[in-house]
Specification:
The protein is of the alpha+beta class and 135 residues long. Helices cover 30% and strands 9% of the residues.
Amino acid sequence: MNARERYFWDLNGHLILRGVLTRSELHAANAAIDAHRDRIRAGEPNRLSRGSTALQGIGRPSMGGKQLLDLERPYCDIFRRMLVHPAVVNRLRVTCGPGFRLDHGPQFIGGVKGTSGHRLHGSGAPHKPNVAYHP
């Protein structure tokens, strides 16, 4: 992880890793989502904005909490490989240290123009060290 990525992570809480996946991996991920298109529904507007006027908008499309790792094979395979991709693992070691864990499985969360935002969540009060970020 270079200094620019670390700074972006510190400001935003996520990274965008361009060019990490091959075309065939992107195709497999898109095919998995397309195969489950009938499960995608718009959520309740503003449910996660917690009263923030700046984050209000339409309901966020999702698969109703369906974990991408729990999709049937072969659709789950690409998302499982993404979690152990060397470029991802390298950055997780920098941000989380050795022995990091998956807090909860990745979900499909769609974002279209006008989708409501999601307030920061996780380790509030009381402090929960197991879900906190330690710079």
